[in-house]
Hints:
Layout: H1 4-7, E1 14-16, H2 25-34, E2 38-41, H3 49-60, E3 69-72, E4 74-76, E5 79-80, H4 92-98, H5 101-118, E6 122-123, H6 148-165, E7 168-174, E8 189-190, H7 195-200, H8 203-211, E9 216-219, E10 222-224, E11 228-231, H9 236-246, E12 253-254, H10 269-279, E13 284-285, H11 290-305, H12 311-330
Parallel strand pairs: 1-2, 1-13, 2-3, 3-6, 6-7, 7-9, 8-10, 9-12
Antiparallel strand pairs: 4-5, 10-11
Helix pairs in contact: 5-6, 6-8, 10-11
Amino acid sequence: MSDSKLSTKLGQLFMFGFKGKNPSDEFLDFLKEEQIGGVILFEENCPNYDTIKQNISRIKSCYRTKAPFIAVDQEGGRVSRIRGIPAEIHAASYYGSKNIVERFAEDYTHSALYMESVGISLNLAPVADIFLNSENNCLFDRCFSDDPQVVAKFVEKAVEVSRHSGLLSCLKHFPGLGAAENDPHDEIAVADYDEKLWNEREKIPFMAGLQKGAELIMTTHMRIPKLDDKIVTESEKIINKLLRTKLAFEGPVITDSLVMKGADNLGEPGEKAVKAFNAGHDILLFGQDLEENIEAFDKFEEACRREEVTEEHIETALQRISGIKLKLDSNVLQ
């Protein structure tokens, strides 16, 4: 990498978690040194309101200029990192099965305002998948419906509520995980749809969410042979053709966690980061293992110096991320 200024900004391309109730000094030092772009909170980091707020305050104190994304998976039901009312709401399937959009909006508003009040800026939700396979244990209660139009209604409402509450939204799991049977947490998920069917089905909730202003999209570790032999996480074809062109999405694309077993075939942490980034992702999401996170960052940085990653792509990703962070800083979400 010839641009030394660019090399100091590589941390913006990563999002990491931490173990335990509170972030360790080592983790905070890593954030401070590399100015890591985002931190994802897990349930053990969120035992109560005061602890969450204190943890986020300590994290933010590590940053010189742009604050990091403070992200959480707070979908509702079993995927709720913050437990208890008002932050924890029902699972998506509860609202979808009863078709109670306004009740969902009311509950999610309380949850979103709670998240914003503690300093969370990004909810990795809503789930825009359509529940198309009853054997899909990964998603069995996380989808609003098996009807794309119903899913679209709830996705639109979730994005609206988030924006009014000062939170960023992230649509997931692109290009659509609902037709798969296996769980990318355990192995590569596989689905059997082609582009024509995707246009008529999976595309609908994602497009609805984007039209309401969703800021990010998350992919996942799945293979769709009729679209590409590569898994989505390393598929430039799927990200560029379907996401950038068909959806005309210009914002940041984030990976699903690269420590999930569905991503194991991509190699070591640094290799995963490089392959996912070169496929078109802008933000590389990892887990809570500090040693693994440092390895991923260091190896990615080395790959950049060897010019295995283009400066043009780094600059574009940084611009996308910066554009979203500008929204947070200027409070234009509300």
